[in-house]
Amino acid sequence: MTPPLEGEALRRQWPMIAHRAAAALRAAHAPPATIRHDARPGDFALRPNRPPEGRFFKLGGFSASYRRFDGGRHEGLLREVFSGADAALVLPYDRARDRVLLVEQWRAGPARRGDPQPWTLEPVAGLVDAGETPEQAALRETWEEAGLPVVELRPMFAGYASPGNATDHFYAFLALCDLPDGLATRGGLAEEHEDLRLHVLPFERALALVETGEANALPLIAMLLWLDRWRRR
Q1: Burial letters for 148-183: b for 16+ Cβ neighbours within 10 Å, e otherwise?
Q2: How far apart are CA 15 and CA 22, in angstroms?
Q3: Number of domains within the chain
Q4: Is the pTM of this model over 0.85?
Q5: Are 203 and 230 in contact (CB under 8 A)?
Q6: Given 57, 83, 109, which residue is the final one in a domain?
Q7: Which residues 6+ apart lie within 8 Å of 220 measured at CB?
Q8: Where do the Nudix hydrolase domain residues begin and end (predicted)?
C-alpha cells in the first residue's frame, strides 16, 4: 500500500491529483455504444498490484479481468498504464486568409525514442484544470501560448491518444482567429517552462507537412485532416 502523501509532497502533487479526479468525472459521461460492446457492471475489473510511480504523471501496474467476446472471462492480465490528464487541443485558423498557427517545441518523447529531430509541430495544447471545462481550457491556452483572442470556438472531436497504455484524453477544437502578418513568433508562459516558437502558415503548406512527415504528432495530423474536410464543406 502507498503511504499517504503529506506536507510538501502533497502540496506539490495536489494539482495533478485534482486533474485526475476531474478527468474521472468527465470519463463517467461516455458516449453511447452502438457498435462496440455496451459494458455492464462486472464486465471488467482492475486490481492495482504496485504503488504508482512519478511526481507529475504516474505509471501504475494492475491486474485486469474482463469479459471476453466468446462469453468467457480473461483473468489476471498484467498491464501498466501511464496516468496523465485530460487536455484541450486547439488549431487556430484564419478563415479569411486561410492560415493556421502551429506551435513548435522540444519534446522528451521523441528524444527518448532516439529521434534526432525532437522539436515537434503541434496544435496549441494544455491540461484541462480541475474546475474548468475543456472549452474554457481551450480559450485559456490559446491566449497563454499564442496571445490570440478567439472569435469562435468549434468542437472537432474528442478521444484517447493511446488507449493501449495511457489515460490521456484529448478534446480538440478549431479556433477561428485573426492571423495577420507580423504576429509574435514566440509564446508560452515562463513560469511553466514553456519555450515555444509559433508558425503561421498557409493551410495547404501546413497540410503538405503531413505528407512529408515533418508534421509527425498524430493529434496535429488528425486536426489538419479534419480542417481540410471542414474547408471543403
Answers
A1: bebeebeebebeeeeeeeebbbbbbbbbebebeeeb
A2: 11
A3: 2
A4: yes
A5: no
A6: 83
A7: 91, 102, 121, 122, 123
A8: 83-223
Catalytic residue numbers?
192
Beta carbons of 100 and 227 less than 8 angstroms apart: yes
Distance CA 173, CA 171 (A): 7
pLDDT in tens, 143-177: 999 999 999 999 999 999 999 989 999 999 999 99
- At 54-105, the pLDDT tens digits run 777 888 899 999 999 999 999 999 999 988 889 999 999 999 999 999 999 9
Was 194 annotated as part of a binding site?
yes
168 and 62 in a common domain = no
Residue 28 corresponds to which cell in the numbers above? 463517467
Q: Answer yes or no: are the C-beta atoms of 188 and 194 closer than 8 Å.
A: yes
Q: Which three cell numbers stand for residue 116?
A: 534526432
Owning domain of residue 20: 7-83
**Do 70 and 144 reside in the same domain of the chain?**
no
Confidence at residue 25, expressed as pLDDT on a 0 to 100 scale: 87
Instruction: Looking at the structure, tell me whether residues 60 and 159 fall in a common domain.
Output: no
- Known binding residue 135? Answer is no
2 lies in some domain: no
